[in-house]
Amino acid sequence: MKYILVILLLLCSVAHADTLNYYVDTGSDGDGDGTSTATSGENCAFASLFAAEAALDGIDFTGDDIVIHCNRTNGGGVDTTACVIAGWTVGTITITQDDFPTETGIFDEDAYYLGPTNGTALTLQEAYVTCSHLQLSMTITSNGIGINVDGTLGGGTTGIYITSCIVNATCSGSGIGYGIRDADGDVVVSNCTITGWKSGSDTGFMGVRQDCSVPHQMWIYNCTISDCYYGALETNNGVLRAYNCAVFNNDDDFNGLTVVSYCASDDGDATDGTAVDISPGGTESTDWAAAFTSYATGDFSVKDTDSVLYHAGDTATPSTDIIGTSWNDPASIGAFEFVASGGGTTNRPPSIIWISKDLQDWAPLWKNEPAFLPWYMSQPNPTFAGAMRDTSIDPILRQRAWQVVSKYSQLKGTL
Q1: 259-261 vs 239-243, strand pairing mode
Q2: Rounded CA gap, 385 and 387, in Å?
Q3: Using omega within 30 degrees of 0 as the cis cutoff, is the peptide bond preceding 370 cis?
Q4: Helix, strand, coil shares, percent, the chain, to 5
Q5: What angle do CA 311, 316, 322 make, to 5 degrees?
Q6: What is the pTM of this model?
Q7: How many CA atoms lie within 13 A of 237 on its CB side?
Q8: Is residue 359 scored above 60 in pLDDT?
Q9: Rounded distance between C-alpha atoms, residue 163 and residue 160, angstroms
Q10: Model pLDDT for residues 297-334, shown as the tens digit of each residue
Q11: What is the dihedral of CA 197, 202, 208, 214, to 10 degrees?
């Protein structure tokens, strides 16, 4: 309890950087400065993520946290222009989607999504970027990447979080196709569904690829990866670790990973004896149908308590799934925790009860992370942005700290 009080006091006493919100709407005329959700006028939303990046990357946002909200209203179409996040002077960047299908976690073609044909939909060349609740759906006829972490910084990018995203593709022809690729940085991917990165028997297509030339780290937690050639592939000098992932209906579910733990696959892959067989019967498609609500239509939620995924994993990271349902401990495997029929999800608006519960959940992590609190207390004006840049702190701890501070910040004026 004393650690909870210490953390709460720290949060109450520290002056946080400003959070600045900008908006993208493919139904906007794009003539504004992006500071409102309006679709016309001097403050209207940008018309594409590319336009937002082009307008904002030259502004000095030192120490500030930038949040870019993507939407599709007013008859807007698909955001088909590729975007590169680079050249920013900023504390942190978050890219999120306000009309993300949080009730179902199933791709919604009528909502916003980033969907260029070929090329790279979203390239991250900045540190401390989060993509949260974002849809991508690409058409690949030669070469294409959904999200590419490809830093041009001397030491690569750090503090990259890709969480609760839907990353789809329709692929044909020969070439390469990667759903999420880490080419130069430390990356955490959680609660994502990644499907369709396959073109016949072409081995250049895959859901997740780690191919850093230097030993950067990539973690994937509670993701569902299906209908790819490789589900997840580790090559070159990078390190890829997978936990609690459902990876199935791929030509090769896992290839070369340093860690595969509490994952469900067709291939029985594990590095620690924790493999879960997602197709234990004689017919794989029948077994998949028993594990998921409707895998063939993109509904990867856990079908029922008889599913092989049900509470078959380890402790989950972060604390909620792709649609905001709190993970059980042990968690179900894949991007969804099981929700009983008619029970709804546990999506919760920000509240002091929520904050208190998260502090209780995360206090042991803060307590057991010796680097964080001493560092934090030693700073003359401790800031959360500074903590996020301390690479000696475990990246998952930093992600959870970021989440709880963000939630607290929303309440700061009403406590």
Answers
A1: parallel
A2: 5
A3: no
A4: 20, 35, 50
A5: 90
A6: 0.81
A7: 7
A8: no
A9: 10
A10: 999 999 999 999 999 999 987 889 999 999 999 999 99
A11: -150
Q: Which of 21, 33, 15, 34 is nearest to 94 (CA)?
A: 21
The pLDDT score that the predictor gives to residue 414 is 33
Number of residues that this document lists for the chain: 415
- What is the Cα–Cα distance from 396 to 235, expressed in whole angstroms? 23
**Residue the block writes with tokens 């540190």:** 127
The secondary structure element, H or E, covering residue 24 is strand 19-25
User: What is the structure's pLDDT at 159?
Assistant: 86
User: pLDDT at residue 117 above 70?
Assistant: yes
Q: Which residue has the tokens 């992932």?
A: 245
148-158 pLDDT, tens per residue? 998 754 456 78
Cα–Cα dist 225/345, whole Å: 22
Task: Please provide the DSSP assignment of 28-74 as one string.
Answer: S---S-S-SS-SSSTTPPBSSHHHHHHHHTTSEEEEEEEEEEEE--T
Which of 253, 265, 239, 165 is CA-nearest to residue 207? 253
Q: Which residue reads 């794989």 in tokens?
A: 284
The rounded distance, in Å, linking the Cα atoms of 394 and 34 is 34
